[in-house]
Each structure stands twice: as structure tokens, then as C-alpha cells.
Amino acid sequence: MATAAEVTRRPPVVEERLSTRIVRVLSKAPVNIILVIVAVFWLVPTFGLLVTSLLSPTDFQVKGWWQVFSAPSKLTWHNYHEIFNNHTITHSLVTTAEIAVGATVIPIFIGAMAGYAFAWLDFPGRDTLFIVVIALLVVPLQMALIPIFSLYNTFGLYDTVIGLVLFHTAFALPFAIFLLRNFFIGIPRDLMEAARIDGASEIYIFVRIILPLGLPAIASLGIFQFLWTWNDLLVALTLATSTQPITVAIFSQLRTFGANIDIIAPATFLSLAIPLLVFFAFQRYFVQGLLAGSVK
Amino acid sequence: MAQSVTAEPPAKAPPDVGDAGRWREYALALGFLAPALFFLGVWVVYPAIRTIVRSFFSDSGNRFVWFDNYKTLFTDQTLLTAIKNNAIWVGVVPALVTAIGLIFAVLIERISWSLAFKTAVFMPMAVSAFAAGITWRLVYQQNPDQGALNAGIRSVKDAFSPPGVLSNATPSTTNLVSKGGGIVLQTPLRPGQTARLGLTGIAPDDVPSGAVQAAKPQPRSGEITGVVWRDFKPGGGKTGVVEQGEKGLPGVTVELKQNGKNVESATTEDNGTFAFTDVKPGTYQAAIGAGTFAKPFGGYSWLGSKLITPSVIIAYIWIWAGFSMVVIAAGLAAIPRDVLEAARTDGASEWQVFRRVTVPLLAPVLTVVFVTMLINVLKVFDIVIAVAPESTQSDANVLALALWRTAFSGSAQFGVGSAIAVFIFILVIPVLLLNIRRFRREA
């Protein structure tokens, strides 16, 4: 790009360094200011929700959450006391946890088994079947709602935690299998050969070698799947009525948003709190899982 | 089972892989695959096929109707709105999310607190789209005393054009006429005369603080004097007359006009009186400007039928920009620094480096983000149902929401619902082919 003439015209090295340093310092200020504004913009909505959840409903009707800057004494735990005594909400939190844990553990175990088979066992049509499983990744879960709704009504799975867990399990499998197969295939063959020579069964190899070594991938997947199912609204709204996870419980309050804000704001914040804790505790795995190919 | 895994010298010969051994391995593979295949068969493959078949049957399911459900999909007004809105989503969101993520990813390389910034922007990703939607619904509340967005706009607006002191006031007598938002006294005035501008419709709380008993204006030669007061006395009283118990209205700007032009203006005292001094002979009119009666900002209707889709889209971008930023930043970190340095040494400006080197090298990552967002946007549901109130859900409608509303909320139109599901599926198939190619390359 640079011609010889330009190169010769360039000022001495020391002077260039000084000038670039000045330019860098000057050019950094606007970037910093812009990004501070952006970061504030990103934080304000959640902060507003948190403060609103700490305001009594009568105070909120008068003025929004920013009133606490002039009157911090208005903050109160009152709404949270109410929420923890609200049976519908507490029960829905338990239901959410049941669904999320079940729909995380089961697909990971089943997905790991299939991933192992695709990675290390030999059978005809293996690669084709693997492609088919990956192809299922892009079947939108909307394609299953109507038939599963009918099926669940027939088999008594409608409005049950187990029904929701099984549905989430199935739709988690393609990604789980894809991710774990690709991770397992990187495990050195020698480890398994050595175990086989020692007479270890395939089940032993799977449980004692593959699963422990696959832990990083399993952790990423687990966090993702936990958050995904914890945050689900559509499936629970469609395949259940009284088995309400927290999202559905909040949804049923939405019809009168302003009047129910003393339930909606703290309940929403509680529903955020768990995913946020998981996210901050396992941020590294979360980002890894994301980079592994988030395709949901 | 409990044997040690540690390597012993290979005393035994490798297991015999004869026909029997091979069949054993097939059976084993089947055993490992069976649960997954069962789940995928029952919950994914069977329903998908069933939905395709179902989309050709009537809503009750007993009549084969060919493409009628698809015809409904493209003629029904509500569903057409959903298709149109989803087209807007597809056109706007993936491009914007990718662009914003790219900008953030490039900019955070220049700051020392990039981890904090990343965490702030990425945080909404961990939260459910539904909860994020509620968060934004709160931001979007129309009442500027509840919605943060309108509150912000109000404070900016008030700084430039403050609301009037008397936004609801009306004239008390017929010779005061509303004109262009302000009020004009019809009676012509000459120097030495007085003007009485009585107003009603002011709630006691709205009377400006500091107001005292209104005073009768005293005529003075060479001046036009007057009073602006709250011409209302509980239990009756005469209009147009300053009476005991009626307060003056301080801080009101009164204009003196001649032939429609402003000649002078004066502000009222605590007792409501004002005076135009040094008035030349002639006839004049007194008026109160529109500014005094300006209504306070009532808030934009972000959740109303016109703005709802842009409002939801902003909330959605707020969620996904973090994803885009993190993925692109990882791609950026993988670009060899010396390539960028070489371009800079060659005299390329920062913009040229970005446009000619960074972006082309990032193309694969940008594609991944764009395609992922494309799939997401075609299935968007939670955020719409969370942000849009029931009254404007038809205006905010998208395909996945239309499916739920058609089949599960109220009317059980399973035929049309299946057609919508198949339509979503058809739209993601091209993306499916793209993804399979990518996965095969990676695998």
C-alpha cells in the first residue's frame, strides 16, 4: 500500500511514537465516553426493574423508580414479603426448578450416550445418521406443538412437569449430541484402547472415562440448557395450564400491568436472579458454549 | 466393572473382532443410541410429519382441504400483519445486531474496562426474553411518571419548552377569546385604561405558589395596567370582577399587541397585576400567549399500535447485541495482530483497516451471527408477548405468536396453526442447509 516515497518521508521513529501516543490518548476519550453511555443504557432497564420491585405500589403510582434518588427511604422489602407468601408464585418457582433440572440432566445423559456412540462406536450408516440428527437442530419446536398437545392429552401428560421435561429433552438432544460427539472425538483413542485391553466394558469406559473427560463440554451444555429451560415460556404456556413455571405465572398477571406491578416486578426480578447467578458463577463455560455454536 | 484403568503390560491379545464381535458392537451402538432416537422420533420427527399432514386438513381435522389453510394464511388480515411484521424483523434485526456487535467488539479493544462492558451488555442474554420484555414494558409505560423513556424525553422537552403555568385554564368572560392556544381580550385598550383578564378552570393545587389576593388594577396615565386572576369564588361571585377571596396569578406573561404585533410584554406580580409602562397613544389589545397554556408532555405511546413493533425490536436488540459482540470479539481475537499492524504501518487509516482488513477477515464469524439471528427472528415469540399489551398484540403480531394465538389462545384452529408452523419451517430450511454445511466443515 505504501509507496517508496511515502516510506522515506516518514518522520523519525521516536517522534512518531510520541505523536501516536498523543493521538491515542485523545482518540480514547470519546470511545470511553460513548461506551460508558452505552453501558448505562444497557443497565438502566434492569436497574429500573429492580428498584421498582422495591417500591410500594402506591409510591409507584405517583412516580417512577427514579424517585428513590431523592427519597431513598421509600425502598421497602414489602413486595418481596408478599411474594414469598404468595403460594402461586413460590410454587411456580419450585415448578420452574423441577423443569429446569430435569430437562438439563436427562438430555445431557442421553445426549452423551448418543454422542459416545457417534464418536467411538462403529456401525453402518453412522455418518448419515449423525447428519440427520444435526439436521433436526433446525426443526422449530413450533412444528411439534400441535401434535404433542394432542398426544399429551391422550396419554395424560398434559399439564405435568414430566411432560414439559420430556419435550425440552427431545428438543435439546440434537445440539447436545452434536456438541458432545465433537468433544468426545477429541479424547485420545489410546485411553479407551488401554481400558478395553484391560477388559473394561463399554459402559465402564463411558461412565469412568468419557463422562469425566467430557466434563468441560457437559458443563457448558448444562448451563445453557438450564438457562434455556428456566427461561422457557412458550412450551409451558402451550402444554400446561396449572403447572406453571414462573414465566407463565407472571404472564397471567400481565393483563393489568400497572396495577399488578407490585407482583410483576419482584416476581420478574426473582426469575432473573437465578439465571444471573448461574451466569456470573459460570460465565466462562457459558461463553464457551456460546462459541461452540449456538443455534437454538 | 471395577477393574483398574491404569495400563498393564498387554498380556492379553487384542479382542477378536470376528463377525460375532462386530454384531456385538452394532447392538451396543444401538443400545447407546436408542434413548436419543426414541426421543427424537416421538417428540421431533413424528410431530413434524404430523404437522405437515395436519396443515392440509380443516381445523376440526376431519376434512381434507388441500391448500385452504395456506390460503387463509395469506389472506387473513391478522396473519398478513404477522407475515409483514416478521418480514420487518428479518430485514432489520439480523443486520442491526451483527453491526452493533461488530462495532462494540472493535471499540472494546480500545478501552481498559472491556470486561465490565462485556458483562453489562451480555447480561440480558442470560435472562429470559420474557423477563427482558417485562423490563422493557416498564421502560415503555406511556405515563412519564412511570415509564423511564417518556420521563427522559419529558425532561429534555421541559428544558426547551417548559409546560405552561396554567395548562388547563379557560377564560371566565366572553370578551376573552381563545386564539392560537393563547387568550386575547377583545375590548380595545388605550393608555390610561385597565385590562381584567379573568381565568377559571384552575384547580386550587395548580395555582402558582406565592399567589395572594388579587388586586384591582389602578388606571395610570400613559400606562396600560391590568390583572390576571383566578376569577372563581366558591359559592358564586361575579365573573369579570375582582372579589375578595380570589387570588392573583403570578408569573403569567401578558402581551400588548397593536394591529396583531407584539409591542410590549409584562409579567404579573403575586397579586396578579401587571403594567405596560410608556405606552404611546393608540388602541391596543392585551393577550396571554400560548406558552402559558402549553399542556405538559403526556408521553409517547410506545406500546400503541403504531410504535409497538419498533419498540419490541429495540428490546430484542438490547438482548442479543451481547451475544453478537462476544462471538465477534472472539473472532477478532483470532485475527493475527501483525496483519492489522502491517496495514497501519502501510499508512492505512483506522477506518481503512476496519473496512478493508478487519471486516473481510471476520466475514465467517459475521455470517454465523447473522444466520443465528435469522433463525431466532423467524421464531421470535416471548419478547413480543411480554412487551406488547393484549390490545396491540395484533399490531405486533409475528408468525410464532400468530401460531400460538390461532391454535392455543381461545380458538383451537389446528389446521391454520399447522400451516403457520409449516410456513416457519419452510423459511428456516435454507438456513438448515447452510448450517449443515458449516457443521460438516467443523466436524
Could you characterize what this model shows?
The complex is a heterodimer of chains A (296) and B (443). With 296 residues, chain A is an all-alpha fold. Chain A has 2 domains: 4-79, no CATH class; 86-291, MetI-like fold (Orthogonal Bundle), CATH 1.10.3720. Chain A is 75% helix and 0% strand. Chain A is globular and about 75 Å long. The model of chain A is unreliable at 1-13 (pLDDT under 50). Chain B has 2 domains: 68-145 and 302-442, MetI-like fold, CATH 1.10.3720; 170-293, Sandwich (Immunoglobulin-like), CATH 2.60.40. Chain B contains 13 helices and 9 strands. Chain B has helices at 19-54, 68-75, 77-107, 114-126, 129-139, 148-160, 290-293, 308-334, 337-345, 350-378, 382-387, 399-407, 414-442; strands at 170-171, 176-179, 182-185, 194-200, 224-230, 253-258, 261-267, 273-276, 285-288. The chains are: A mainly alpha (296), B alpha+beta (443).
The overall number of domains of chain A is 2
The largest β sheet of chain A comes out as: none
Count the DSSP helices of chain A: 15
Given helix and strand content, the structural type of chain B is: alpha+beta
CATH class descriptor of the largest domain in chain B: Mainly Alpha
Query: What is the string of helix and strand elements of chain B?
Result: HHHHHHEEEEEEEEEHHHHHHH
Mean pLDDT of chain A: 86
Basic shape of chain B: elongated
Straight-line distance between termini of chain B? 32 Å
Span between N and C termini of chain A? 43 Å
**Tally of strands of chain A:** 0
Helicity level of chain B: 40-55%
What is the CA-atom radius of gyration of chain A, in angstroms? 27 Å
Beta content of chain B comes to 5-15%
Q: Which spans of chain A have pLDDT < 50 for at least 5 consecutive residues?
A: 1-13
Number of strands of chain B: 9
Figure out the total of helices of chain B.
Answer: 13
Determine the CATH topology of the largest domain in chain A. Answer: MetI-like fold
Structural class of chain A: mainly alpha
